[in-house]
Amino acid sequence: SIIPVRTVFESQDFDEGKCLCFIYDYYPSGVPIATQYSIQRDESRGDSKRFFARAGRVIPEQHLWSFLTQLLTALVTIHPQGLAAMSINPYRVLVQSNRVRLNFCGINEALQLVPADKSVAELQFEDLRNACQLMMSIACGCDINTKPLEKMAFEVMKNRYSADFCGILKFVLFTQHAKEKLPTVWDVQSLAWHKLVNELQQSYAHIDYLENQLAKEHQNGRLFSLISKLGFITERPEHRNDPKWSETGDRYLVKLFRDSVFHSVDEGGRPQIDLGHVINCLNKLDAASVEKTLLTSRNQDSLLVVSYKELNRCVRSAFEELLRASESKTATS
Fold this sequence. Notes:
By secondary structure, the chain is mainly α. It is built from twelve helices and seven strands. Strand 6 (292-296) and strand 7 (303-307) form a beta hairpin. The radius of gyration is 32 Å and the shape is elongated.
């Protein structure tokens, strides 16, 4: 959940003179949370009832739990290193689908903007406060960045969200803590452990979905590779000055197989467009199945019974011959 900085360099290519440039990973579909949830700056400090009216809709609590647990996971990575994020606000945190990513990490340290009057523990507690304020901002559609706004937003949220969720906000934002015993990210995470389990289960489900999609793409890639080989071999005008190369030997069996898969017709002579038949035959060919198939010449004078294993050997042999010829030509040139 942390967007890493890849490199930092100085540049004089801008009108401002010498600039320090930070290069982060790019997420093309990621947008600031303020943009995604229409979070506006509130300067009027008016009635708290305007918060939800401005948001236009109530954000599901499940989304808020997911965002909060992702932020806590990011802070669990940062805080044990003796660092603080110092970049949690609606304009610097990106959301991509349901994934939250911390952006602009490391800039304060590089520019030496870390407050000297605050300890690391205090800065880390500020991260927790900012994370809770961000949850309020998402729910209310207003940038919650002051104590009066926090109180107004909390009054609205405690009537809309569960006691567990509001309890975390109350613990971080409205409970007095001594400077020597400020809550840590582990303390807050312990209050949300049951939601972390749900988040983990959803992550596993998403991983299973992605693996399933990847398997389908792999399947498509195998079949495309096989179809490409058939295209290279069959109906080739000539090879090594032999115009009948694709019509003899192993290549002839490959041609008959191509016809049986893509050019088959029914009893009435109508083309059979059956993708299931095509995929089934190509899978058997790719797996070199011992199952046999009947191949018929175009004039129907010849009938050949051949196994898919033998056809697989014919395809590999013919394609390797073409490949060797291509490589020898490249080496000669």
